[in-house]
Protein backbone atom coordinates (compact mmCIF):
# COMPACT_ATOMS: atom_id res chain seq x y z
CA UNK A 1 0.00 0.00 0.00
CA UNK A 2 1.42 3.36 -0.99
CA UNK A 3 1.15 6.30 1.39
CA UNK A 4 0.34 9.75 0.12
CA UNK A 5 1.73 12.80 1.79
CA UNK A 6 -0.81 15.50 2.42
CA UNK A 7 -0.05 19.06 3.34
CA UNK A 8 -2.88 20.92 5.04
CA UNK A 9 -2.94 24.52 5.98
CA UNK A 10 -4.99 27.62 6.13
CA UNK A 11 -4.21 31.25 5.84
CA UNK A 12 -4.17 33.22 9.01
CA UNK A 13 -6.71 35.98 9.34
CA UNK A 14 -5.14 39.34 8.78
CA UNK A 15 -6.13 42.48 10.59
CA UNK A 16 -4.46 44.65 7.99
CA UNK A 17 -4.34 44.29 4.26
CA UNK A 18 -1.28 45.33 2.32
CA UNK A 19 -2.07 45.89 -1.35
CA UNK A 20 0.12 43.93 -3.76
CA UNK A 21 2.29 45.85 -6.15
CA UNK A 22 1.13 45.30 -9.70
CA UNK A 23 3.87 44.76 -12.26
CA UNK A 24 2.67 45.13 -15.87
CA UNK A 25 3.13 42.06 -18.08
CA UNK A 26 2.60 41.31 -21.73
CA UNK A 27 -0.05 38.79 -22.74
CA UNK A 28 2.80 36.49 -23.79
CA UNK A 29 4.22 36.49 -20.23
CA UNK A 30 0.74 35.95 -18.74
CA UNK A 31 0.17 33.01 -21.09
CA UNK A 32 3.56 31.53 -20.12
CA UNK A 33 2.73 31.82 -16.42
CA UNK A 34 -0.73 30.31 -16.93
CA UNK A 35 0.65 27.39 -18.92
CA UNK A 36 3.60 26.82 -16.56
CA UNK A 37 1.52 26.87 -13.38
CA UNK A 38 -1.80 25.36 -14.47
CA UNK A 39 -1.05 22.00 -12.81
CA UNK A 40 1.22 23.26 -10.03
CA UNK A 41 -0.23 22.28 -6.62
CA UNK A 42 0.18 25.81 -5.27
CA UNK A 43 -1.82 27.37 -8.09
CA UNK A 44 -4.15 24.72 -9.55
CA UNK A 45 -6.90 25.46 -6.99
CA UNK A 46 -6.97 29.21 -7.68
CA UNK A 47 -9.72 30.72 -9.78
CA UNK A 48 -8.90 33.02 -12.71
CA UNK A 49 -9.14 36.21 -10.61
CA UNK A 50 -6.82 34.82 -7.94
CA UNK A 51 -4.31 33.68 -10.57
CA UNK A 52 -4.43 37.14 -12.15
CA UNK A 53 -3.68 38.71 -8.76
CA UNK A 54 -0.70 36.39 -8.20
CA UNK A 55 0.62 36.94 -11.74
CA UNK A 56 0.23 40.71 -11.29
CA UNK A 57 2.42 40.53 -8.18
CA UNK A 58 5.24 38.66 -9.95
CA UNK A 59 8.39 40.52 -10.95
CA UNK A 60 10.78 39.92 -13.81
CA UNK A 61 14.05 38.21 -12.90
CA UNK A 62 17.19 37.85 -15.02
CA UNK A 63 20.38 36.04 -14.14
CA UNK A 64 23.44 35.55 -16.37
CA UNK A 65 24.76 32.08 -17.17
CA UNK A 66 26.62 30.69 -14.16
CA UNK A 67 24.79 32.84 -11.59
CA UNK A 68 23.50 31.29 -8.37
CA UNK A 69 19.76 31.98 -8.21
CA UNK A 70 19.10 30.31 -4.87
CA UNK A 71 21.58 28.69 -2.48
CA UNK A 72 21.07 25.59 -0.36
CA UNK A 73 20.71 26.51 3.30
CA UNK A 74 19.55 30.09 2.68
CA UNK A 75 16.16 31.32 3.84
CA UNK A 76 13.44 30.77 1.27
CA UNK A 77 11.91 34.06 0.25
CA UNK A 78 10.88 33.74 -3.41
CA UNK A 79 9.27 31.34 -5.88
CA UNK A 80 10.61 31.31 -9.46
CA UNK A 81 9.11 30.42 -12.83
CA UNK A 82 11.54 29.85 -15.71
CA UNK A 83 10.42 31.79 -18.78
CA UNK A 84 13.60 31.35 -20.81
CA UNK A 85 16.81 29.49 -20.18
CA UNK A 86 17.97 26.42 -18.35
CA UNK A 87 18.81 25.95 -14.68
CA UNK A 88 20.74 23.21 -12.93
CA UNK A 89 19.82 22.03 -9.44
CA UNK A 90 22.52 20.78 -7.05
CA UNK A 91 22.29 19.25 -3.59
CA UNK A 92 25.21 19.20 -1.16
CA UNK A 93 25.40 16.00 0.89
CA UNK A 94 28.34 14.75 2.94
CA UNK A 95 30.51 14.53 -0.18
CA UNK A 96 32.39 17.80 -0.74
CA UNK A 97 31.21 18.01 -4.34
CA UNK A 98 27.55 18.99 -4.86
CA UNK A 99 25.41 16.45 -6.72
CA UNK A 100 23.52 17.50 -9.88
CA UNK A 101 19.97 16.28 -9.25
CA UNK A 102 17.96 17.82 -12.07
CA UNK A 103 17.71 20.38 -14.84
CA UNK A 104 14.84 22.85 -15.09
CA UNK A 105 13.86 24.13 -18.53
CA UNK A 106 11.53 26.93 -19.63
CA UNK A 107 8.09 26.39 -18.10
CA UNK A 108 9.50 24.84 -14.93
CA UNK A 109 9.54 26.38 -11.49
CA UNK A 110 11.43 26.14 -8.22
CA UNK A 111 11.74 27.62 -4.77
CA UNK A 112 8.39 26.62 -3.31
CA UNK A 113 9.58 23.97 -0.82
CA UNK A 114 11.26 26.45 1.52
CA UNK A 115 8.16 28.64 1.38
CA UNK A 116 5.74 25.78 2.06
CA UNK A 117 7.70 24.27 4.92
CA UNK A 118 9.33 27.43 6.30
CA UNK A 119 12.67 25.69 6.06
CA UNK A 120 16.03 26.63 4.54
CA UNK A 121 16.56 26.06 0.82
CA UNK A 122 17.01 22.35 0.08
CA UNK A 123 19.14 22.87 -3.05
CA UNK A 124 21.25 25.35 -4.98
CA UNK A 125 20.02 26.46 -8.40
CA UNK A 126 22.47 27.80 -11.00
CA UNK A 127 21.54 29.46 -14.29
CA UNK A 128 23.16 27.25 -16.96
CA UNK A 129 22.16 29.75 -19.63
CA UNK A 130 20.71 33.23 -19.32
CA UNK A 131 17.71 32.90 -17.01
CA UNK A 132 14.76 35.14 -17.71
CA UNK A 133 11.63 34.48 -15.74
CA UNK A 134 9.27 35.69 -13.08
CA UNK A 135 9.46 35.53 -9.32
CA UNK A 136 7.19 36.37 -6.43
CA UNK A 137 7.88 37.19 -2.83
CA UNK A 138 4.79 36.22 -0.85
CA UNK A 139 3.00 38.75 1.32
CA UNK A 140 3.88 38.28 4.97
CA UNK A 141 0.38 38.65 6.38
CA UNK A 142 -2.71 36.62 5.59
CA UNK A 143 -1.01 34.40 3.02
CA UNK A 144 -0.20 30.71 3.10
CA UNK A 145 1.95 28.83 0.60
CA UNK A 146 0.29 25.58 1.63
CA UNK A 147 -2.20 24.29 -0.92
CA UNK A 148 -5.70 23.36 0.35
- Low-pLDDT sequence parts: 1-16
Taking the sheet with the most strands, its summary is: 4 strands, antiparallel
The CATH homologous superfamily of the domain at 59-136 is called Jelly Rolls
Question: How many DSSP-defined strands?
Answer: 8
Distance between the termini: 24 Å
Considering the chains and any ligands shown, give keywords for the structure:
148 residues; 18% helix; 3 helices; alpha+beta; Jelly Rolls; 4-stranded antiparallel beta sheet; disordered N terminus
Give an overview in words.
- By secondary structure, the chain is of the alpha+beta class.
- It has a domain of 78 residues: Sandwich (Jelly Rolls).
- It has 3 helices and 8 strands, in the order ααββββββαββ.
- The strands form 2 sheets. The protein has a 4-stranded antiparallel sheet. Strands 2-7-4-5 form a 4-stranded antiparallel sheet, with no helix packed on it.
- It is globular, with a radius of gyration of 16 Å.
Helix and strand arrangement:
Blueprint: H1 27-37, H2 48-57, E1 59-63, E2 68-70, E3 79-84, E4 87-91, E5 99-104, E6 109-110, H3 112-117, E7 124-127, E8 131-136
Antiparallel strand pairs: 1-8, 2-7, 3-6, 3-8, 4-5, 4-7
Short characterization:
Helix content is 18%, strand content 25%. By secondary structure, the protein is of the alpha+beta class.
